[in-house]
Amino acid sequence: MSRELVMLAREGDHDAFTRLALSSIGRLNAVARLILHDTTIAEDAVQDALVEAWRNLRTLRDPDRFDAWLNRLLVRACQDAWRRRSRRALVELPLRPIDDSPIGDVQSRVALADELERGLRRLTVDQRAVLVLTFYLDLPLADVAAATGVPVGTVKSRLNRSISALRASLEADSRHSSMASERLA
After folding, report:
1. CATH code matching the domain that covers 1-88, chosen among 1.10.3720.10, 1.10.1740.10, 1.10.10.10, 3.40.50.300
2. What is the pLDDT of residue 56?
3. Where are the beta strands (DSSP E) in 10-167?
4. Is 45 within 8 Å of 78 (Cβ atoms)?
5. Torsion of the alpha carbons at 145, 112, 173 and 95, rounded to the nearest 10
6. Is the predicted pLDDT of residue 98 greater than 60, yes or no?
């Protein structure tokens, strides 16, 4: 991120902030969608984070930390959006193969991505946030701690619990699928 752009935006330059927002919007949308699993709510969270960034940019002490600061605002906006969202009843239908033909490369990747997404949906928003910041954005634990507003030790604990919960969810899905297949056979 350009330090000069951040400093100009901090002084009230709308064009500089627009350029900062445009350079970050793709990453912010991707992170919010991964955390919230709902495109509409994710877009609202990104917008809320950018509005908050514009309103509070003058409080940013170190312009070089703009990205980390913006990540923190986004995680907070995602947490707020998650709390505000209306409850919707979702029904998941397990898919079973039509025939016994071998699954191709593309099909297996799509199936694995779908399985992972179902597992991630079962995690809390805090657990997903830690996983996304750590593995999708590849942030160091100190930056994840800064973005989530918790100590590094808490991040380590949440990361460990998130991985365990995701693993348990995936294993439960696998057992459920194999039991359903046995009943159909």
Report:
1. 1.10.1740.10
2. 93
3. none
4. yes
5. 140
6. no
Instruction: Indicate whether 184 pLDDT > 80.
Output: no
Q: What angle do CA 2, 34, 66 make, to 5 degrees?
A: 20
* Cα 120 to chain centroid, rounded: 10
* Calpha distance 68→65 (Å, rounded): 5
Q: Can you tell me which residue has the tokens 């597992």?
A: 119
Which DSSP category does 99 fall into? S
Q: First vs last Cα of the chain: how many Å apart?
A: 57
Q: Give residue 93's pLDDT band: very low, low, confident or very high (50, 70, 90).
A: very low
> What residues does each domain of the chain span?
1-88, 91-185
CATH of 91-185, one of 1.10.10.10, 3.40.30.10, 3.40.50.150, 3.10.180.10: 1.10.10.10
Q: For the residues 74-82, what does the mean pLDDT come to?
A: 92
Q: Are 141 and 58 in contact (CB under 8 A)?
A: no
